[in-house]
Amino acid sequence: MTSAIRFSGVSRHFGDVKAVDGVDLDIAEGEFFAMLGPSGSGKTTCLRLIAGFERPTSGTIEIFGKVVQDTPPYKRDVNTVFQDYALFPHLNVRDNVAYGLMIAGLAKKNRHKSADDALEIVALGGYGDRKPSELSGGQRQRVALARALINQPKALLLDEPLGALDLKLREQMQEELKVLQRNLGITFVFVTHDQSEALSMADRVAVFDAGKIIQVGTPEAIYYRPERPFVADFVGSSNVLPPEFVAKLTGTMAYGAVRPEAVYLADHGHSACVKTVSFLGTATRVSLDVAGTPMTMLLPKGALIPKSGETVLIDWAAHDLHVMHP
Amino acid sequence: MNRNSGPLGRISDALWRKPSLLIFLLILPPALWLGIIYLGSLFALLAQSFFSIDEFTGQIQYEWTLKTYGELFRPSNFDIIIRTVVMATAVTIGAAIIGFPVAYYAARYARGKWKAVFYLGIMMPLWSSYLVKVYAWKLILAKEGILNWLFETLHLSWLLEAYLSIPIIGGNSLSVSATGTFLVFLYVWLPFMILPIQASLERVPVSMLEASGDLGARPSQTFRHVLLPLALPGVIAGSIFTFSLTLGDYIIPQIVGSSRRFIGQAVYAFQGTAGNIPLAAAFAVVPILLMAVYLWIAKRKGAFDAL
Questions:
Q1: Which fold has domain B73-300?
Q2: Whose CA is closest to A199, among A7, A33, A1?
Protein backbone atom coordinates (compact mmCIF):
# COMPACT_ATOMS: atom_id res chain seq x y z
CA MET A 1 0.00 0.00 0.00
CA THR A 2 1.46 3.36 -1.02
CA SER A 3 1.27 6.07 1.53
CA ALA A 4 -0.84 9.07 0.54
CA ILE A 5 0.17 11.42 3.31
CA ARG A 6 3.07 11.01 5.67
CA PHE A 7 4.09 13.18 8.62
CA SER A 8 7.54 12.68 10.12
CA GLY A 9 8.06 14.50 13.41
CA VAL A 10 5.82 17.39 12.38
CA SER A 11 5.33 20.23 14.83
CA ARG A 12 3.49 23.50 14.50
CA HIS A 13 4.00 25.93 17.35
CA PHE A 14 2.24 29.30 17.66
CA GLY A 15 4.55 31.09 20.08
CA ASP A 16 4.31 29.03 23.27
CA VAL A 17 1.30 27.06 22.08
CA LYS A 18 2.22 23.67 20.66
CA ALA A 19 -0.77 23.18 18.39
CA VAL A 20 0.85 20.14 16.77
CA ASP A 21 3.74 18.55 18.60
CA GLY A 22 5.95 15.88 17.06
CA VAL A 23 3.29 14.06 15.07
CA ASP A 24 4.12 10.97 12.99
CA LEU A 25 1.38 9.87 10.67
CA ASP A 26 0.94 7.56 7.73
CA ILE A 27 -2.27 7.66 5.73
CA ALA A 28 -2.62 4.96 3.08
CA GLU A 29 -3.88 5.60 -0.44
CA GLY A 30 -7.63 5.13 -0.82
CA GLU A 31 -8.17 5.15 2.92
CA PHE A 32 -10.98 6.90 4.82
CA PHE A 33 -8.95 8.37 7.66
CA ALA A 34 -10.52 10.24 10.58
CA MET A 35 -8.73 12.64 12.91
CA LEU A 36 -10.65 12.70 16.15
CA GLY A 37 -10.12 14.85 19.19
CA PRO A 38 -11.57 17.59 21.35
CA SER A 39 -11.35 21.19 20.13
CA GLY A 40 -7.84 22.56 20.42
CA SER A 41 -6.27 19.11 20.18
CA GLY A 42 -4.41 19.91 16.93
CA LYS A 43 -6.48 17.88 14.47
CA THR A 44 -7.57 20.87 12.37
CA THR A 45 -4.03 22.27 12.37
CA CYS A 46 -2.84 18.90 11.04
CA LEU A 47 -5.37 19.12 8.23
CA ARG A 48 -4.27 22.69 7.46
CA LEU A 49 -0.67 21.48 7.35
CA ILE A 50 -1.65 18.94 4.69
CA ALA A 51 -3.56 21.57 2.69
CA GLY A 52 -0.69 24.03 3.03
CA PHE A 53 -2.49 26.82 4.93
CA GLU A 54 -0.02 26.35 7.78
CA ARG A 55 3.68 25.61 7.56
CA PRO A 56 5.29 23.22 10.03
CA THR A 57 7.73 24.62 12.58
CA SER A 58 9.71 21.42 12.10
CA GLY A 59 9.33 18.01 10.48
CA THR A 60 8.59 16.68 7.01
CA ILE A 61 5.25 16.34 5.23
CA GLU A 62 4.94 14.12 2.16
CA ILE A 63 1.96 13.90 -0.16
CA PHE A 64 2.20 10.87 -2.45
CA GLY A 65 5.93 10.71 -1.95
CA LYS A 66 6.55 14.41 -2.66
CA VAL A 67 7.99 16.54 0.13
CA VAL A 68 5.60 19.48 0.28
CA GLN A 69 6.26 21.67 3.30
CA ASP A 70 7.71 24.37 1.03
CA THR A 71 4.96 24.00 -1.60
CA PRO A 72 2.13 26.58 -1.52
CA PRO A 73 -1.49 25.30 -1.33
CA TYR A 74 -2.22 26.09 -4.98
CA LYS A 75 0.43 23.61 -6.10
CA ARG A 76 -0.74 20.69 -3.95
CA ASP A 77 -2.85 17.82 -5.29
CA VAL A 78 -5.31 17.96 -2.40
CA ASN A 79 -8.58 19.83 -2.02
CA THR A 80 -10.46 20.91 1.07
CA VAL A 81 -14.08 21.03 2.20
CA PHE A 82 -14.13 23.84 4.76
CA GLN A 83 -16.00 23.84 8.01
CA ASP A 84 -17.87 27.02 7.02
CA TYR A 85 -17.97 25.75 3.37
CA ALA A 86 -16.27 29.02 2.24
CA LEU A 87 -18.47 29.30 -0.85
CA PHE A 88 -17.85 32.50 -2.80
CA PRO A 89 -20.91 34.70 -2.15
CA HIS A 90 -20.51 36.74 -5.34
CA LEU A 91 -20.59 33.68 -7.64
CA ASN A 92 -23.55 31.44 -8.35
CA VAL A 93 -23.45 27.75 -7.51
CA ARG A 94 -22.25 26.70 -10.98
CA ASP A 95 -19.38 29.20 -10.99
CA ASN A 96 -18.46 28.19 -7.45
CA VAL A 97 -18.15 24.56 -8.49
CA ALA A 98 -16.34 25.49 -11.71
CA TYR A 99 -13.88 27.79 -9.90
CA GLY A 100 -11.00 25.33 -9.95
CA LEU A 101 -11.52 24.68 -13.66
CA MET A 102 -11.75 28.41 -14.39
CA ILE A 103 -8.39 28.88 -12.66
CA ALA A 104 -7.00 25.97 -14.66
CA GLY A 105 -7.99 27.90 -17.81
CA LEU A 106 -10.82 25.70 -19.08
CA ALA A 107 -13.24 27.32 -21.56
CA LYS A 108 -16.51 28.52 -20.09
CA LYS A 109 -18.65 25.97 -21.93
CA ASN A 110 -16.56 22.97 -20.85
CA ARG A 111 -16.23 24.01 -17.25
CA HIS A 112 -19.94 24.76 -16.93
CA LYS A 113 -20.69 21.32 -18.35
CA SER A 114 -18.35 19.67 -15.82
CA ALA A 115 -19.81 21.75 -12.99
CA ASP A 116 -23.35 20.73 -13.92
CA ASP A 117 -22.26 17.08 -13.99
CA ALA A 118 -20.64 17.44 -10.58
CA LEU A 119 -23.80 19.07 -9.21
CA GLU A 120 -25.76 16.14 -10.61
CA ILE A 121 -23.55 13.73 -8.62
CA VAL A 122 -24.24 15.55 -5.34
CA ALA A 123 -27.98 15.62 -6.19
CA LEU A 124 -28.10 19.36 -6.83
CA GLY A 125 -28.79 19.28 -10.57
CA GLY A 126 -30.66 22.43 -11.64
CA TYR A 127 -29.33 24.50 -8.74
CA GLY A 128 -26.50 26.00 -10.82
CA ASP A 129 -28.01 29.46 -11.21
CA ARG A 130 -28.72 30.04 -7.53
CA LYS A 131 -26.54 32.04 -5.20
CA PRO A 132 -25.02 30.17 -2.22
CA SER A 133 -27.07 32.37 0.13
CA GLU A 134 -30.26 30.86 -1.30
CA LEU A 135 -29.28 27.31 -0.30
CA SER A 136 -29.80 25.42 2.95
CA GLY A 137 -26.87 24.24 5.06
CA GLY A 138 -27.00 20.72 3.65
CA GLN A 139 -27.11 22.00 0.08
CA ARG A 140 -24.15 24.34 0.67
CA GLN A 141 -22.27 21.39 2.06
CA ARG A 142 -22.86 19.46 -1.16
CA VAL A 143 -21.77 22.42 -3.27
CA ALA A 144 -18.56 22.65 -1.25
CA LEU A 145 -18.04 18.93 -1.85
CA ALA A 146 -18.63 19.22 -5.60
CA ARG A 147 -16.28 22.22 -5.78
CA ALA A 148 -13.52 20.37 -3.96
CA LEU A 149 -13.90 17.24 -6.08
CA ILE A 150 -14.00 18.90 -9.51
CA ASN A 151 -10.20 19.25 -9.65
CA GLN A 152 -9.98 15.45 -9.17
CA PRO A 153 -7.68 15.69 -6.15
CA LYS A 154 -5.64 12.71 -5.01
CA ALA A 155 -6.85 13.31 -1.49
CA LEU A 156 -9.87 15.15 -0.12
CA LEU A 157 -9.55 16.96 3.20
CA LEU A 158 -12.74 17.51 5.16
CA ASP A 159 -12.71 19.88 8.15
CA GLU A 160 -15.71 19.02 10.34
CA PRO A 161 -17.95 19.22 7.27
CA LEU A 162 -21.03 17.92 9.03
CA GLY A 163 -20.68 20.07 12.13
CA ALA A 164 -23.34 22.60 11.13
CA LEU A 165 -25.98 20.09 10.04
CA ASP A 166 -28.84 18.75 12.12
CA LEU A 167 -28.78 15.15 13.30
CA LYS A 168 -30.91 13.56 10.59
CA LEU A 169 -29.06 15.29 7.75
CA ARG A 170 -25.76 14.43 9.39
CA GLU A 171 -26.51 10.73 9.44
CA GLN A 172 -27.65 10.85 5.82
CA MET A 173 -24.49 12.73 4.77
CA GLN A 174 -22.30 10.27 6.69
CA GLU A 175 -23.73 7.47 4.58
CA GLU A 176 -23.37 9.47 1.37
CA LEU A 177 -19.78 10.46 2.07
CA LYS A 178 -18.87 6.84 2.72
CA VAL A 179 -20.47 5.70 -0.52
CA LEU A 180 -18.83 8.56 -2.41
CA GLN A 181 -15.41 7.67 -1.03
CA ARG A 182 -15.84 4.00 -2.00
CA ASN A 183 -16.93 4.95 -5.53
CA LEU A 184 -14.19 7.52 -6.13
CA GLY A 185 -11.51 5.46 -4.44
CA ILE A 186 -9.59 8.54 -3.35
CA THR A 187 -8.13 9.20 0.08
CA PHE A 188 -10.42 11.06 2.49
CA VAL A 189 -8.97 12.77 5.55
CA PHE A 190 -11.82 13.69 7.85
CA VAL A 191 -11.53 15.91 10.92
CA THR A 192 -14.21 15.61 13.57
CA HIS A 193 -14.79 15.95 17.29
CA ASP A 194 -17.72 13.55 17.15
CA GLN A 195 -16.54 10.07 18.11
CA SER A 196 -19.57 8.23 16.70
CA GLU A 197 -19.03 9.96 13.35
CA ALA A 198 -15.36 8.96 13.28
CA LEU A 199 -16.09 5.38 14.28
CA SER A 200 -18.94 4.85 11.83
CA MET A 201 -17.23 6.34 8.78
CA ALA A 202 -13.50 5.78 8.95
CA ASP A 203 -11.27 2.86 8.04
CA ARG A 204 -8.80 4.11 10.61
CA VAL A 205 -8.99 6.73 13.33
CA ALA A 206 -6.26 8.87 14.90
CA VAL A 207 -7.14 10.20 18.34
CA PHE A 208 -5.59 13.60 19.13
CA ASP A 209 -4.99 15.24 22.46
CA ALA A 210 -2.93 18.34 23.23
CA GLY A 211 -1.18 18.39 19.85
CA LYS A 212 -0.17 14.74 19.89
CA ILE A 213 -1.62 11.56 18.43
CA ILE A 214 -2.57 9.30 21.32
CA GLN A 215 -3.65 6.25 19.35
CA VAL A 216 -4.13 5.24 15.73
CA GLY A 217 -6.16 2.19 14.77
CA THR A 218 -9.33 0.74 13.35
CA PRO A 219 -12.59 1.92 14.93
CA GLU A 220 -12.91 -1.48 16.65
CA ALA A 221 -9.44 -1.23 18.14
CA ILE A 222 -10.02 2.34 19.33
CA TYR A 223 -13.37 1.43 20.79
CA TYR A 224 -12.62 -1.91 22.43
CA ARG A 225 -8.90 -1.69 23.09
CA PRO A 226 -8.07 1.91 24.08
CA GLU A 227 -4.41 2.29 24.95
CA ARG A 228 -4.79 5.30 27.22
CA PRO A 229 -7.44 6.44 29.69
CA PHE A 230 -8.02 9.54 27.49
CA VAL A 231 -8.99 7.40 24.50
CA ALA A 232 -11.28 5.22 26.58
CA ASP A 233 -12.98 8.25 28.06
CA PHE A 234 -13.19 10.44 24.94
CA VAL A 235 -13.96 7.86 22.28
CA GLY A 236 -16.15 5.34 23.96
CA SER A 237 -17.22 7.19 27.09
CA SER A 238 -15.87 4.00 28.64
CA ASN A 239 -15.57 3.55 32.36
CA VAL A 240 -11.95 4.19 33.21
CA LEU A 241 -10.86 2.18 36.23
CA PRO A 242 -7.86 3.41 38.25
CA PRO A 243 -4.79 1.13 38.51
CA GLU A 244 -5.49 0.23 42.16
CA PHE A 245 -8.95 -1.01 41.23
CA VAL A 246 -7.60 -3.06 38.31
CA ALA A 247 -4.77 -4.45 40.45
CA LYS A 248 -7.32 -5.92 42.86
CA LEU A 249 -9.15 -7.64 40.00
CA THR A 250 -6.29 -8.82 37.79
CA GLY A 251 -3.08 -8.27 39.68
CA THR A 252 -1.81 -5.82 37.01
CA MET A 253 -1.13 -2.26 38.09
CA ALA A 254 -2.62 -0.50 35.02
CA TYR A 255 -5.63 1.50 33.92
CA GLY A 256 -8.62 -0.52 32.81
CA ALA A 257 -11.68 0.21 30.71
CA VAL A 258 -15.15 -1.28 30.81
CA ARG A 259 -17.82 -0.33 28.27
CA PRO A 260 -21.01 1.00 29.89
CA GLU A 261 -23.11 -1.56 27.98
CA ALA A 262 -20.97 -4.39 29.39
CA VAL A 263 -21.93 -3.53 32.97
CA TYR A 264 -24.99 -5.31 34.38
CA LEU A 265 -26.90 -5.67 37.62
CA ALA A 266 -25.84 -8.87 39.36
CA ASP A 267 -26.56 -10.90 42.49
CA HIS A 268 -22.99 -10.53 43.65
CA GLY A 269 -20.19 -8.29 42.55
CA HIS A 270 -19.25 -4.66 43.26
CA SER A 271 -21.41 -2.58 45.49
CA ALA A 272 -22.45 0.64 43.77
CA CYS A 273 -24.51 3.66 44.75
CA VAL A 274 -26.93 4.90 42.08
CA LYS A 275 -26.52 8.65 41.50
CA THR A 276 -28.69 9.55 38.51
CA VAL A 277 -30.87 7.66 36.06
CA SER A 278 -31.41 9.05 32.54
CA PHE A 279 -33.83 7.62 30.02
CA LEU A 280 -32.24 7.67 26.52
CA GLY A 281 -34.95 5.97 24.50
CA THR A 282 -33.30 2.74 23.40
CA ALA A 283 -31.54 2.35 26.73
CA THR A 284 -31.30 3.84 30.19
CA ARG A 285 -28.05 5.33 31.46
CA VAL A 286 -27.30 4.91 35.15
CA SER A 287 -24.43 6.78 36.79
CA LEU A 288 -22.91 5.02 39.70
CA ASP A 289 -20.36 5.51 42.44
CA VAL A 290 -18.30 2.36 42.93
CA ALA A 291 -16.18 2.88 46.04
CA GLY A 292 -15.20 6.36 44.89
CA THR A 293 -14.81 5.52 41.18
CA PRO A 294 -17.53 7.05 38.99
CA MET A 295 -18.97 4.60 36.48
CA THR A 296 -21.89 4.53 34.10
CA MET A 297 -23.91 1.61 32.88
CA LEU A 298 -26.32 1.29 30.00
CA LEU A 299 -29.34 -0.86 30.71
CA PRO A 300 -31.25 -2.20 27.73
CA LYS A 301 -34.97 -1.69 27.30
CA GLY A 302 -36.95 -3.99 29.55
CA ALA A 303 -34.27 -4.36 32.19
CA LEU A 304 -35.01 -3.65 35.82
CA ILE A 305 -34.17 0.01 36.41
CA PRO A 306 -32.82 0.97 39.85
CA LYS A 307 -33.79 4.23 41.54
CA SER A 308 -31.33 6.97 42.41
CA GLY A 309 -30.01 6.68 45.96
CA GLU A 310 -30.32 2.89 45.94
CA THR A 311 -27.33 0.65 46.50
CA VAL A 312 -27.01 -2.11 43.92
CA LEU A 313 -24.58 -4.86 42.99
CA ILE A 314 -22.96 -4.64 39.56
CA ASP A 315 -20.56 -6.81 37.61
CA TRP A 316 -19.11 -7.35 34.16
CA ALA A 317 -17.65 -10.32 32.31
CA ALA A 318 -13.93 -10.71 32.83
CA HIS A 319 -13.26 -10.43 29.10
CA ASP A 320 -15.07 -7.08 28.98
CA LEU A 321 -12.42 -5.51 31.18
CA HIS A 322 -9.74 -4.13 28.88
CA VAL A 323 -6.46 -3.59 30.68
CA MET A 324 -4.33 -0.85 29.14
CA HIS A 325 -0.58 -0.91 28.77
CA PRO A 326 0.94 -0.08 32.11
CA MET B 1 -45.70 47.86 42.22
CA ASN B 2 -46.16 51.49 41.39
CA ARG B 3 -42.75 52.40 40.14
CA ASN B 4 -42.12 55.36 37.86
CA SER B 5 -45.60 56.71 37.98
CA GLY B 6 -44.46 60.36 37.68
CA PRO B 7 -44.93 62.35 34.47
CA LEU B 8 -41.64 61.05 33.01
CA GLY B 9 -42.65 57.50 33.79
CA ARG B 10 -45.99 58.03 32.05
CA ILE B 11 -44.22 59.42 28.99
CA SER B 12 -41.91 56.44 28.73
CA ASP B 13 -44.88 54.09 29.23
CA ALA B 14 -46.68 55.84 26.38
CA LEU B 15 -43.61 55.63 24.14
CA TRP B 16 -43.24 51.95 24.96
CA ARG B 17 -46.81 51.33 23.87
CA LYS B 18 -46.37 53.37 20.70
CA PRO B 19 -42.84 52.74 19.39
CA SER B 20 -43.63 54.51 16.13
CA LEU B 21 -44.17 57.74 18.09
CA LEU B 22 -40.70 57.41 19.61
CA ILE B 23 -39.13 56.86 16.20
CA PHE B 24 -41.07 59.87 14.84
CA LEU B 25 -39.79 62.09 17.65
CA LEU B 26 -36.20 60.90 17.16
CA ILE B 27 -36.27 61.39 13.41
CA LEU B 28 -38.02 64.78 13.43
CA PRO B 29 -35.05 67.12 14.21
CA PRO B 30 -32.64 65.58 11.67
CA ALA B 31 -35.45 65.38 9.12
CA LEU B 32 -36.18 69.07 9.57
CA TRP B 33 -32.48 69.88 9.32
CA LEU B 34 -31.97 67.78 6.22
CA GLY B 35 -35.31 68.66 4.61
CA ILE B 36 -35.50 72.37 5.13
CA ILE B 37 -31.97 73.63 5.54
CA TYR B 38 -30.03 71.23 3.34
CA LEU B 39 -32.49 70.29 0.61
CA GLY B 40 -34.00 73.79 0.71
CA SER B 41 -30.67 75.44 0.00
CA LEU B 42 -29.90 72.83 -2.63
CA PHE B 43 -33.12 73.63 -4.47
CA ALA B 44 -32.50 77.37 -4.11
CA LEU B 45 -29.13 76.74 -5.74
CA LEU B 46 -30.71 74.68 -8.50
CA ALA B 47 -33.25 77.42 -9.13
CA GLN B 48 -30.49 80.05 -9.37
CA SER B 49 -28.77 78.04 -12.08
CA PHE B 50 -31.81 78.45 -14.32
CA PHE B 51 -31.58 82.24 -14.18
CA SER B 52 -29.11 84.26 -16.20
CA ILE B 53 -27.10 87.43 -15.87
CA ASP B 54 -27.39 90.53 -18.01
CA GLU B 55 -23.96 91.00 -19.51
CA PHE B 56 -24.21 94.80 -19.64
CA THR B 57 -25.76 95.65 -16.30
CA GLY B 58 -24.52 92.62 -14.35
CA GLN B 59 -28.05 92.21 -12.94
CA ILE B 60 -29.60 88.79 -12.46
CA GLN B 61 -32.57 88.26 -14.75
CA TYR B 62 -35.20 86.17 -12.98
CA GLU B 63 -36.49 84.35 -16.05
CA TRP B 64 -36.23 80.61 -16.60
CA THR B 65 -33.53 79.89 -19.17
CA LEU B 66 -30.91 77.27 -20.03
CA LYS B 67 -28.55 80.00 -21.24
CA THR B 68 -26.32 79.71 -18.15
CA TYR B 69 -25.91 75.98 -18.67
CA GLY B 70 -24.96 76.75 -22.25
CA GLU B 71 -22.14 78.90 -20.92
CA LEU B 72 -20.64 75.87 -19.20
CA PHE B 73 -19.80 74.54 -22.64
CA ARG B 74 -17.73 77.57 -23.56
CA PRO B 75 -14.15 76.27 -24.01
CA SER B 76 -12.76 78.20 -21.04
CA ASN B 77 -15.47 76.87 -18.72
CA PHE B 78 -15.59 73.39 -20.17
CA ASP B 79 -11.81 73.05 -19.64
CA ILE B 80 -12.40 73.66 -15.93
CA ILE B 81 -14.91 70.81 -15.80
CA ILE B 82 -12.66 68.40 -17.72
CA ARG B 83 -9.64 69.33 -15.59
CA THR B 84 -11.59 68.74 -12.38
CA VAL B 85 -13.01 65.41 -13.50
CA VAL B 86 -9.60 64.14 -14.64
CA MET B 87 -8.05 65.22 -11.34
CA ALA B 88 -10.84 63.62 -9.28
CA THR B 89 -10.50 60.39 -11.27
CA ALA B 90 -6.72 60.33 -10.88
CA VAL B 91 -6.95 61.02 -7.15
CA THR B 92 -9.56 58.27 -6.73
CA ILE B 93 -7.52 55.67 -8.62
CA GLY B 94 -4.33 56.67 -6.81
CA ALA B 95 -6.06 56.50 -3.43
CA ALA B 96 -7.49 53.06 -4.23
CA ILE B 97 -4.09 51.71 -5.29
CA ILE B 98 -2.32 53.06 -2.21
CA GLY B 99 -5.20 52.49 0.17
CA PHE B 100 -5.96 48.85 -0.63
CA PRO B 101 -2.72 47.30 0.68
CA VAL B 102 -2.88 49.43 3.82
CA ALA B 103 -6.49 48.41 4.42
CA TYR B 104 -5.65 44.78 3.67
CA TYR B 105 -2.84 44.76 6.19
CA ALA B 106 -5.08 46.33 8.82
CA ALA B 107 -7.95 43.93 8.19
CA ARG B 108 -5.94 40.71 7.91
CA TYR B 109 -2.84 41.04 10.04
CA ALA B 110 -3.10 43.93 12.52
CA ARG B 111 -4.27 42.72 15.92
CA GLY B 112 -4.66 44.37 19.30
CA LYS B 113 -2.08 47.08 19.78
CA TRP B 114 -1.19 47.26 16.08
CA LYS B 115 -4.82 47.75 15.16
CA ALA B 116 -4.92 50.75 17.48
CA VAL B 117 -1.70 52.07 15.90
CA PHE B 118 -3.31 51.66 12.49
CA TYR B 119 -6.44 53.58 13.43
CA LEU B 120 -4.34 56.33 15.03
CA GLY B 121 -2.12 56.53 11.98
CA ILE B 122 -5.10 56.82 9.65
CA MET B 123 -7.19 59.14 11.79
CA MET B 124 -4.55 61.42 13.26
CA PRO B 125 -4.08 63.49 10.07
CA LEU B 126 -7.82 64.16 10.21
CA TRP B 127 -7.46 65.78 13.66
CA SER B 128 -5.10 68.50 12.50
CA SER B 129 -6.32 71.44 10.48
CA TYR B 130 -6.74 70.86 6.81
CA LEU B 131 -5.05 74.20 6.06
CA VAL B 132 -2.02 73.34 8.15
CA LYS B 133 -1.59 70.09 6.22
CA VAL B 134 -1.94 71.81 2.86
CA TYR B 135 0.61 74.50 3.75
CA ALA B 136 2.94 71.84 5.10
CA TRP B 137 2.74 70.13 1.72
CA LYS B 138 3.42 73.43 -0.02
CA LEU B 139 6.70 73.59 1.90
CA ILE B 140 7.55 69.99 1.09
CA LEU B 141 6.92 70.53 -2.62
CA ALA B 142 8.42 74.02 -2.96
CA LYS B 143 11.59 74.71 -4.93
CA GLU B 144 13.49 75.15 -1.65
CA GLY B 145 11.59 72.26 -0.12
CA ILE B 146 12.60 68.88 1.18
CA LEU B 147 11.70 66.94 -1.97
CA ASN B 148 13.90 69.11 -4.14
CA TRP B 149 16.70 68.75 -1.61
CA LEU B 150 16.26 64.98 -1.64
CA PHE B 151 16.48 64.82 -5.42
CA GLU B 152 19.59 67.04 -5.33
CA THR B 153 21.28 64.91 -2.68
CA LEU B 154 20.63 61.79 -4.75
CA HIS B 155 21.94 63.62 -7.84
CA LEU B 156 18.57 63.07 -9.49
CA SER B 157 17.67 66.73 -10.04
CA TRP B 158 17.74 66.11 -13.78
CA LEU B 159 14.95 63.57 -13.33
CA LEU B 160 12.75 66.04 -11.48
CA GLU B 161 13.57 68.74 -14.06
CA ALA B 162 12.65 66.41 -16.89
CA TYR B 163 9.39 65.51 -15.17
CA LEU B 164 8.49 69.13 -14.47
CA SER B 165 9.09 70.07 -18.08
CA ILE B 166 6.23 67.81 -19.19
CA PRO B 167 3.32 70.08 -20.13
CA ILE B 168 0.04 70.01 -18.17
CA ILE B 169 1.32 67.90 -15.24
CA GLY B 170 4.60 69.82 -14.83
CA GLY B 171 5.47 73.40 -13.87
CA ASN B 172 8.16 75.61 -12.35
CA SER B 173 8.30 73.49 -9.21
CA LEU B 174 6.18 70.70 -7.77
CA SER B 175 4.28 73.17 -5.60
CA VAL B 176 2.96 75.02 -8.62
CA SER B 177 2.27 71.96 -10.77
CA ALA B 178 -0.81 69.83 -11.27
CA THR B 179 1.25 66.92 -9.90
CA GLY B 180 1.58 68.85 -6.64
CA THR B 181 -2.17 69.37 -6.49
CA PHE B 182 -2.64 65.66 -7.13
CA LEU B 183 -0.24 64.65 -4.34
CA VAL B 184 -1.93 66.91 -1.79
CA PHE B 185 -5.41 65.74 -2.76
CA LEU B 186 -4.20 62.16 -2.51
CA TYR B 187 -2.76 62.70 0.94
CA VAL B 188 -5.71 64.61 2.34
CA TRP B 189 -8.43 62.21 1.11
CA LEU B 190 -6.58 58.91 1.60
CA PRO B 191 -8.19 58.06 5.00
CA PHE B 192 -11.61 58.29 3.37
CA MET B 193 -10.55 55.53 0.98
CA ILE B 194 -8.75 53.30 3.48
CA LEU B 195 -11.46 53.10 6.13
CA PRO B 196 -14.33 51.80 3.95
CA ILE B 197 -12.04 49.31 2.19
CA GLN B 198 -10.80 48.07 5.53
CA ALA B 199 -14.39 47.67 6.76
CA SER B 200 -15.32 45.61 3.70
CA LEU B 201 -12.17 43.45 3.93
CA GLU B 202 -12.90 42.70 7.59
CA ARG B 203 -16.02 40.90 6.44
CA VAL B 204 -14.19 38.58 4.02
CA PRO B 205 -13.51 35.33 5.90
CA VAL B 206 -9.95 34.01 5.66
CA SER B 207 -11.36 30.63 4.62
CA MET B 208 -12.65 32.25 1.40
CA LEU B 209 -9.09 33.17 0.38
CA GLU B 210 -7.78 29.78 1.48
CA ALA B 211 -10.47 28.03 -0.55
CA SER B 212 -9.38 29.94 -3.64
CA GLY B 213 -5.74 28.95 -3.12
CA ASP B 214 -6.82 25.40 -2.34
CA LEU B 215 -8.55 25.24 -5.72
CA GLY B 216 -5.35 26.17 -7.48
CA ALA B 217 -5.48 29.97 -7.68
CA ARG B 218 -2.23 31.87 -7.35
CA PRO B 219 -2.38 34.86 -4.98
CA SER B 220 -2.83 37.24 -7.94
CA GLN B 221 -5.76 35.16 -9.21
CA THR B 222 -7.30 35.04 -5.73
CA PHE B 223 -7.03 38.82 -5.60
CA ARG B 224 -8.75 39.24 -8.96
CA HIS B 225 -11.47 36.63 -8.62
CA VAL B 226 -12.27 36.65 -4.91
CA LEU B 227 -10.75 39.46 -2.85
CA LEU B 228 -11.41 42.40 -5.17
CA PRO B 229 -15.05 41.48 -5.99
CA LEU B 230 -15.79 41.02 -2.29
CA ALA B 231 -14.07 44.29 -1.35
CA LEU B 232 -15.67 46.24 -4.20
CA PRO B 233 -18.47 47.83 -2.14
CA GLY B 234 -15.78 49.29 0.12
CA VAL B 235 -13.72 50.53 -2.81
CA ILE B 236 -16.82 52.14 -4.33
CA ALA B 237 -17.76 53.74 -1.01
CA GLY B 238 -14.22 55.10 -0.67
CA SER B 239 -14.20 56.34 -4.24
CA ILE B 240 -17.46 58.21 -3.65
CA PHE B 241 -15.67 60.13 -0.90
CA THR B 242 -12.43 60.83 -2.76
CA PHE B 243 -14.17 61.62 -6.04
CA SER B 244 -16.78 63.98 -4.65
CA LEU B 245 -14.41 65.66 -2.19
CA THR B 246 -11.95 66.40 -5.01
CA LEU B 247 -14.76 67.63 -7.28
CA GLY B 248 -15.87 70.19 -4.72
CA ASP B 249 -12.61 71.36 -3.15
CA TYR B 250 -11.41 74.92 -3.92
CA ILE B 251 -8.70 75.50 -1.31
CA ILE B 252 -6.06 72.88 -2.21
CA PRO B 253 -5.72 73.89 -5.90
CA GLN B 254 -5.54 77.52 -4.80
CA ILE B 255 -2.59 76.90 -2.45
CA VAL B 256 -0.76 74.13 -4.31
CA GLY B 257 -0.91 73.97 -8.07
CA SER B 258 -0.87 75.92 -11.28
CA SER B 259 -3.13 78.90 -11.91
CA ARG B 260 -5.52 76.75 -13.90
CA ARG B 261 -8.85 76.64 -12.10
CA PHE B 262 -10.98 73.80 -10.78
CA ILE B 263 -14.78 73.73 -10.41
CA GLY B 264 -14.64 74.75 -6.75
CA GLN B 265 -12.52 77.76 -7.54
CA ALA B 266 -14.82 78.71 -10.40
CA VAL B 267 -17.85 78.57 -8.09
CA TYR B 268 -15.98 80.64 -5.52
CA ALA B 269 -14.93 83.24 -8.06
CA PHE B 270 -18.28 83.54 -9.87
CA GLN B 271 -20.40 83.91 -6.74
CA GLY B 272 -17.88 86.29 -5.15
CA THR B 273 -16.07 89.00 -7.07
CA ALA B 274 -17.76 88.30 -10.40
CA GLY B 275 -21.22 88.34 -8.85
CA ASN B 276 -22.44 85.81 -11.37
CA ILE B 277 -24.55 83.67 -9.04
CA PRO B 278 -26.36 81.80 -11.85
CA LEU B 279 -23.12 80.59 -13.44
CA ALA B 280 -21.69 79.68 -10.01
CA ALA B 281 -24.87 77.68 -9.35
CA ALA B 282 -24.62 75.96 -12.74
CA PHE B 283 -21.01 75.02 -11.97
CA ALA B 284 -22.09 73.69 -8.56
CA VAL B 285 -24.67 71.45 -10.22
CA VAL B 286 -21.97 69.72 -12.30
CA PRO B 287 -20.46 67.64 -9.42
CA ILE B 288 -23.96 66.65 -8.30
CA LEU B 289 -24.79 65.37 -11.79
CA LEU B 290 -21.41 63.64 -12.11
CA MET B 291 -21.90 61.84 -8.79
CA ALA B 292 -25.42 60.79 -9.78
CA VAL B 293 -24.09 59.31 -13.02
CA TYR B 294 -21.20 57.63 -11.19
CA LEU B 295 -23.49 56.02 -8.61
CA TRP B 296 -25.89 54.90 -11.30
CA ILE B 297 -23.08 53.18 -13.23
CA ALA B 298 -21.73 51.62 -10.03
CA LYS B 299 -25.16 50.26 -9.21
CA ARG B 300 -25.62 48.93 -12.73
CA LYS B 301 -22.26 47.15 -12.47
CA GLY B 302 -23.47 45.44 -9.30
CA ALA B 303 -21.07 47.21 -6.96
CA PHE B 304 -23.67 47.26 -4.18
CA ASP B 305 -24.86 43.66 -4.59
CA ALA B 306 -22.62 42.44 -1.78
CA LEU B 307 -23.91 45.07 0.68
A1: MetI-like fold (1.10.3720)
A2: A33
